[in-house]
Amino acid sequence: MVIFNELRINDDRSALIIDCSVQDLTVYDNMYISEILLYYYKNASSVGEPVNLSKVITVYENTNDDTTIQGVRRCVSLTDISSGTMGVTTFDKGIFFVKVTCDGTIGSEVAQFACGTDDTTDIGVIVDWKTMYDYGMSFVAGMNVCGDKCTPNSAYEQFILNWFSIKLALSACDFDKLAALWERFLKLTTFSPSFTSGNCGCHA
To answer: Fewer beta carbons under 10 A from the terminal one: N or C of the chain?
Structure first.
């Protein structure tokens, strides 16, 4: 029912952007966005629902039940999370869940659509991909140089495996595995890549 047009942390990690809308289908003509919640991945259940509601930020609330609101765009700043309500005061190295709840009347023809088409809530996930990118690219930069006897870099291999595992867990909505893999990645980042310059013949 909900389309996430944009879910991301901006480049300098000073803001988190949420842009969503009700899917443009006749069956949803009388549906509208009622509420948008934001919470940290450590407060998400295995199905992505918030565990502790006191650690949730309300990004948008349709207090007047305005039935014309079928699209919402919000920018959550560091100031909005500075109180630590969510259990974190930075977007850096984080994963955030966005829960969108819709209300209204679904057309009767929904019975002809696939299972789940009548779900009035949807959950999106925002990952700090830039942290992963920066860490991974540090290994790529090191490909111009060689270490001792051109020994393969096991940390780089671990990063690549973790990168694809995180993307796979996210695609499968396996949020427990996603959290575990993210914690593993954060531990990897505590070890800064180090390379020895020189030419030992292992690179073209």
So the answer is: C
